[in-house]
Design brief:
Blueprint: E1 2-5, E2 20-23, E3 26-32, E4 35-36, E5 41-42, H1 47-65, E6 72-79, H2 85-94, E7 102-107, E8 117-124
Parallel strand pairs: 6-7
Antiparallel strand pairs: 1-2, 2-3, 3-8, 4-5, 6-8
Helix pairs in contact: 1-2
Length: 125
């Protein structure tokens, strides 16, 4: 059975997709971009500020679904430029101090809203 997860503590979908979908014990969180849900705007600053906002958005969706970062098993990080990898990694690492999930990181030509980072997440209970 599929359950759609939505929270106003994370930015709404900007297309025909859900913030997250829970199927059985698995939660699939759509790629999150650094949009502040209170303003619906991309946060100001660079990769550090943008990654922090992305992680806060992921946290809000996890919480809404009854999950936490300790339940995350896989992340996919999309970057506008691999030169941002180290700074993104430092912020990301604060959320996974132990039992880190599997992860892939890619540089892509362009991301929605011209942001610097987008992260999708899978969690399992």
């Amino acid at each position: 059975m599929k359950e759609i997860i939505n929270t106003n503590k994370a930015p709404g979908a900007i297309g025909p997709y859900s913030q997250a979908v829970k199927a059985g014990n698995t939660l699939y969180i759509s790629g999150q971009v650094p949009v502040n849900p209170a303003t619906s705007k991309v946060v100001e600053g660079g990769i550090v500020e943008q990654t922090e906002q992305v992680m806060q958005n992921i946290s809000a969706i996890l919480e809404e679904a009854g999950y936490s970062f300790s339940d995350v098993v896989k992340s996919t990080c999309l970057l506008s430029d691999m030169s941002s990898f180290a700074a993104m990694n430092e912020v990301y690492g604060k959320y996974y101090p132990e039992n880190q999930p599997a992860r892939a990181a890619f540089a892509v030509k362009e991301l929605p809203l011209s942001v610097l980072v987008e992260i999708e997440t899978i969690a399992v209970k």
